[in-house]
Amino acid sequence: MALFKKMSPHDAYAQRLKDxxxxxxxxxxxxxxxxxxxxxxxxxxxxPYKETGYFSAEKIPATALRFEARxxxxxxxxxxxxxxxxxxxxxxxxxxxxxxxxxxxASADTLGLLLNYEVKTTGKYxxxxxxxxxxxxxxxxxISTGPSLSFxxxxxxxxxxxxxxxxxxxxxxxxxxxxxxxxPKLTPAIAAAEGTVTNVTENKLGGLVVFMRPESRDxxxxxxxxxxxxxxxxxxxxxxxxxxxxxxxxxxxTTPAHLHFGIYTSGGAIxxxxxxxxxxxxxxxxxxxxxxxxxxxxxxxxxTRLYVQxxxxxxxxxxxxxxxxxxxxxxxDGWYKASLPDGTLGYVYSKNVTSTTTLRKANINSNRPLLDxxxxxxxARKATLAAGQQVNIQGSFRNYFLVTDKxxxxxxxxxxx
Length: 417
Description:
By secondary structure, the protein is mainly beta. The protein has helices at 9-19, 26-40, 273-276, and strands at 43-44, 49-55, 63-69, 73-82, 89-98, 101-107, 114-118, 123-131, 137-147, 160-163, 168-169, 174-175, 179-182, 188-190, 195-203, 207-214, 220-229, 236-237, 242-246, 258-265, 268-270, 296-299, 304-307, 316-320, 325-332, 335-339, 345-349, 353-355, 360-363, 368-371, 381-385, 390-397, 400-404, 410-414.
């Protein structure tokens, strides 16, 4: 057992803040708190996914995204930054075991550019982006998936998957525990990973079969219905080496030539498709305008919906009146990731959002405090607006107006009753 566990770059930075006593400062304690609250408040997405956002140092920001991934997939996470130098974003991938149990399983290095991870367990994952203190900048994040293994049939045979995991067999008496990859007879069946051949044998269902154990993995690959076996027990193979030739031996005698490809763990067979699926989807291009990033905006239409995901079929968090003030955090596809003044975070369709300009002018009837937050109990006074003073109303939130006074001070005033 190791006495010392290597820290992630994020945790190492957090420790440096503590060592310097900054955890006792407002700025440092807020940064450390955001490490946890960003994960708790993670928004749900579907992958592939791409977003461009802006981190403003004065807000001490962090963001997190939750998504599902399947065992055998390989996550490809790419992060680009502007400026590229002197602007560190800590990138951490966490496995969410339940609502109260999460574990960091991978981290990008301090350059924060690329993170590849082979998914070991089907379930929910959280990606956290957390910039260091006193640094502002733009970022673009993309998350996509691909196979963690090479395809087990030579491309020369133009192979195609014709039967999938769970398909019925023997008139519904059993389920297919693998995938069938069809290709012309004698097409090479090839090693999908570096590893060792563990068994070359024959059985009633699979005919001529080969088992191989990929290096540093906890499962075994199964090649069945081979016309010929071209490896021996104990043989080490590299990716692309020929294991055997595609055929139709065993119970496939009456079917076209194909490779039955399976994966077995200590708990039994698992679906091999995510391990070898060649259909890689790319994230949608961002069509939402980026000029509103890090800007205060407002809803342009009545009944604008704030969703939990950037998808009109997703659950609606809340419905917003026209001119409701929003802070634009990021853009993805045709959506904005936006926060309300009370911190509620979600996705809004970009066409329902516009920049804040003067909606109308109004005169103050009595001396009023100009607040930094739309709440008379928790908002701090930025200035006092004298009776008769004219203000420009830019938007609203609940019973408050966002206004600018004659001195260009911006803040909130309670609507007069």
